[in-house]
Amino acid sequence: MDAADLKSCSEGFLRTIEDQGIAGGWRWSIASGEQVWSPGFFRLLGLDPRSTVPDYGLLLAMLHPDDRAQLASAGEIRQGVVSPSALVRLIRPDGGMRILSLLSELGVSPEGRPLSARGVALDVTDRERLRQIHAAEQRRRQALYLTSYATTYSVGTDRIHDFPLEMAQVHGFSLQEITLNPFVMVVPHQREAFRERALRVHEPQARFQGTSLERLANGEVWRFRIIGVPLWDEAGRYRGRAGMKYPIQESGAAVDAVPEGRNVLSALEQTVQGHHLRAARGLLDWSMSTLAEAGGLSLSTVRRLEEDAEGQGARSRHRAVTALRQAGIRFIALDDGTLAVARD
Question: Is the Cβ–Cβ distance between 246 and 255 less than 8 Å?
């Protein structure tokens, strides 16, 4: 396992290895100069976040001198050059050495101008320990779907769905059948209408939410809520979809706890538009300056967000939404595709 494999790992597994100091991530906004490290990245490097300012140059300085050339320099990143993957030796402040698998990527504007850089790191010094953690997480995910029928999933730009293997066992179809045609799980009298409605959101790359009746391998018929949301990078490029599926009662309440899905929440936040932000501010009686201060944003950034001039995947949108959520605003996705705004 290396850093590239983290893209396909579950939220729970990523959080587990972050908490244990085995993995972490970094981000660098080239335009503003802001750099952010995750808590796990600080632990991975053996640094105290209270006394350490995130800096790409510090990361390079901590690498073994013979390995530093494997990563792009700070100047090269500003020019739009990154080293996609590397295996390097890290020297911690206590003198200990760890072997890191690094994966880096660049965010660019439609014109190709570098806007940001980000990366993830995985400690592969002790691969057996990592293998055991991964195996435990797989068992947890298996038990979750087999007992609750709830899961998160992803859809690539090729429209191929990535479902857990346990879904095939629960519904009685092969995983290949479900991956290529997820509508095969829907009961026949609903299948075509549900399929047409779901496919209509792919071309405009819109959010989908709906309910379906699905037959299980044991003959039972359950009602599920399906949520699918488009994902965008910071440059506004479409990256596929994040989805969530969970059973609901006739009343509409969830039968079991919905699985954690930070990707789904992040994708839902990307659908918040300028008029939603204005409505939320109105409910709070906030000015644009108040929102800017609460979200740690500039007034001009808030103005661009409300004029829908910021990229769909801009981090500033998530910061504004987070600030509004913390103030009691709720963004509610309705089955007809509407995003409602309410206050607790």
Answer: yes
| Class of the domain covering 3-129 | alpha beta
Separation of alpha carbons 113 and 133, rounded Å: 39
Same fold, 3-129 and 150-260: yes
d(CA 335, CA 205): 16
Mean model confidence pLDDT for the chain: 82
Identify the CATH number of the domain defined by range 272-343.
1.10.260.40
| pLDDT, mean of residues 151-168 | 84
Token pair of 85, please? 């993957």
pLDDT in tens, 180-212: 899 999 999 999 999 998 888 777 677 888 889
Domain layout of the chain by residue ranges: 3-129, 150-260, 272-343
Per-residue tokens: 231: 């994902």
CATH class for the region spanning 150-260: alpha beta
CB 1 within 8 A of CB 129: no
Convert the pLDDT of each residue in 16-38 to its tens digit: 556 656 788 899 998 888 999 98
Q: Of how many residues is the chain composed?
A: 344
pLDDT 10s digits, 229-243: 888 766 677 878 888
**Contact criterion met (CB below 8 Å) for 22 and 123:** yes
